[in-house]
Specification:
eight-stranded mixed sheet, alpha+beta, binds phenylalanine, globular, five-stranded mixed sheet, binds zinc ion
Length: about 900
Amino acid sequence: MRTDTGRIIHLADYRPTDFVLERVDLTFELDPEATKVEARLIFHRREGTDPAAPLVLDGDELTLSGLLFDQMEMARERYTATPDTLVVRDLPESSPFELTITTVINPQANSQLMGLYRSSGIYCTQCEAEGFRRITYFPDRPDVLAPYTVTIIADKAANPLLLSNGNYLGGGNFDEGRHFAAWFDPHPKPAYLFALVAGDLGVVEDKFTTMSGREVALKIYVEHGKEPRAAYAMDALKRSMKWDEEVFGREYDLDIFMIVAVSDFNMGAMENKGLNVFNDKYVLADPETATDADYANIEAIIAHEYFHNWTGNRITCRDWFQLCLKEGLTVFRDHEFSADQRSRPVKRIAEVRHLRSEQFPEDAGPLAHPVRPDKYREINNFYTTTVYEKGSEVTRMIATILGRDLFKKGMDLYFERHDGEAATVEDFVRCFEAASGRDLGQFSLWYNQAGTPHVSVAAAYDAAGKTLTLEIGQTVPPTPGQADKKPMHIPLDLALVLEDGTIAAPTSVEGAEMTGSVLHLKEARHKVIFTGIPSRPALSLNRSFSAPVVVRYDQKPADLALIARHETDLFSRWQAITDLALPALKDAARAARKGEAIQIDVTFADALLAVAADPALEPAFRAQALTLPSEADIARELGGDNDPDAIHAGREAVLTAIARTGAETFGSLYDTMTPDGGYSPDAASAGRRALRNAALLYRTIAADTPALAAEAFAKADNMTDLAQALTVLAHRFPEAPETHAALAAFEARFAENALVIDKWFQIQATIPGDGALARVMRLKGNRHFNENNPNRVRSLVGAFVFSNPTGFNRADGAGYRFLSEEILRIDAKNPQLAARLLTSMRSWRQLEPARAELARTALVRVEREVLSNDVRDIVDRTLK
Ligand code: PHE
Ligand code: ZN
């Protein structure tokens, strides 16, 4: 474990390396406990740098077992090696030289899953962000790019497969039952994109012909016997390759593209050049074991990693502060891909729900940071929803501001100018300025100012003058280290919806620039006057969620209902329905908090039920309308002094009211939204299932018996329906015999499939109420649980702390104490996983005082221990 040094890295301190790395030649002799790594590195001193400067290489828990200079033993006094650095002195002033570094590492003992490790008998690597330094001493930073040659030597019987980046050079047999393979990657790359995989795996093969007619071999490697479950991933890969050619003009650049699925992985997947390594959860799927959501995730993540080949690999990041340059942009690209492959509005609704429930709380709490941070203590902790999802929103705003064609022109320029380079956010923005002639200086604040902007709107309609006046203000709340903020450039898409449902076309707009339907807010306050508006319009604001802001506008329910019925932007229709339901949810929570009886006026439900029943709308959209804001969303809207039990009780009361009012609608949806034919994971079929499953939930709530869900469980012929039926049973009737029977049947049927057992863990970990903690502790003893596997830990412990507000936030604080103990134990093995789990405490200050104090006590308990750099960073910032 790398413990904390307290050292903070600052963007302002960036400077290029003193030495230029020309070539990398690696030889691995694989052994589970003693793998020998020989790294031959050719360097020369950068022109204009200090001729006496030593070469400083990074390491992490390494021991040096040999060092040659130009093939000769290096004199002992010329270098110093510690576990985390190798310093070499007296190096040539200008001529190139070669260092040969030998290290011996233990993949079997690597429980952090960074560097070279073993997962179910497979050797694999994870080098982003700073894992390569756990393999050999190296200038481990993203602006050091070189071509790599890799030779892998291993026992042939145990490791028939030997893979690395680039194109295959050749291989052959070796002494003592060993064999070797050599790979060459001609594209200069930073070390974080290095990968090696060895072992015995099955393969699914296909090919793709690129737009210029080159044939690329496609291979997806999975455990033997699981090949049929990789078919969907392969299909998604081919669609991604085609889409990137058609939409971004990007062609693949090697002869082979490989994906390897491994079962122990800290993140979703990794874009190593030509050799993506995936968490098997995002590769394996079939109707019996994967839900519609799993299919959609696989499609999105396969696309995401593939798209990195251009946005991340061909053009990489100068330093880790620029992480959003590859991640925000690539998320934007995968969002666009999914929108094109599926339903654009439904995809947008899902994105915004995710942003609001994950990124908004991050941006409003102690872990808030800019999309491009300017300091960090542990880079692993900056793979955040702010860098990824808000980063994507920032890219989307550039596209909105420039319009489709100029955005495309800017992207083309970016690829042209920076191919082969390690770039910065400034480089990226400059390409759009050059392509459009627009000044994006103020816009760039989106990269540097943390916090979700609030936009307040007040409207006045003047019937005599037929004008509408909007007073619009923006504020950006203070965040850690940033007390005062400047006004941002906010592209606010809006529509003025008239009584007859049409959208008004103003004859003039004064007070702010308007392009198309987008108003450009740039000042702290604007007074915007629209003329030629025939009657008082309803205001549809932030259409398609054109900016990641909170809009405060006191909407009349009648206006919301009008928007819910008539907006041409489907996202805005959904937003209106949500806004109609929110007051009821908040009032109910407040009443429950005061111990008062909950009264619900269900008029708001009319609009929601009208949409749910509207055959002209796609089922997936109708299902979204029926999915109320989550308890975490309501907590955020309430804004503090939160009691999760009251929020839960209030939301339940609202659900029950809707279930009763809409009984007829839900009955007919349940009967009509049945599948036609066998299971297909396509978006339209998934939408029908989503709508039917929403109806199942409401019908069960109205009936208050497990019968219907038990029947659905028995009849389900796919995992989507099965998991939903089990969720309804377990969450609503945890002690019913039907639930016990279903849980037992599910466990027995899928005992051999860890990814399905993860769903079983997750469903139980999220059963609301005080009983959840005991259940989670009991499940930790289940034979399928494995504390060393991140997917298992996230499904049980992660689901409990992130997705069970009442269970985790028990009034006696036992949930927080449990988390603190988990963190300390997991940290000793896998700091990244522990740090990620601890971010579940990021909103502790929003809790009512008694719970907040218990949460703080648990955090302090963690803070007092010896910790990894990862957990130290999170706990300190969370308590600050
Ligand atoms: N770069 C990966 C992605 O988003 C995420 C990742 C980061 C994976 C760090 C592993 C380690 O595509
Ligand atoms: Zn990524």
